[in-house]
Amino acid sequence: MVAQRDEIPRDQPVIIYCNTGSLSAQAGFALRLLGWDNVRILQDGLVGWKAKGGFEANQRAIEAAEEAGAS
């Protein structure tokens, strides 16, 4: 990741992920040390994201927020 840092944009959000989150956390930390402030890490990686419901959980959260805003 650090070796390819010139390909990583600085003017838009960057999400880093790996299978469990540990490698992406290290990569994100390194990029932040190098000056990237637009880097976000998918905590717990893809495994954790799937265990929490993945896209379905995201959709439920969006719907709940919309309902709360309509009240």
UniProtKB/TrEMBL annotation:
InterPro entries: Rhodanese-like_dom (IPR001763), Rhodanese-like_dom_sf (IPR036873). It comes from the Bacteria. Residues 8-58 form the Rhodanese domain. PROSITE patterns: RHODANESE_3 (PS50206). Gene3D superfamilies: Rhodanese-like domain. This is Rhodanese domain-containing protein. It comes from Lamprobacter modestohalophilus. The lineage of its organism: Bacteria, Pseudomonadati, Pseudomonadota, Gammaproteobacteria, Chromatiales.
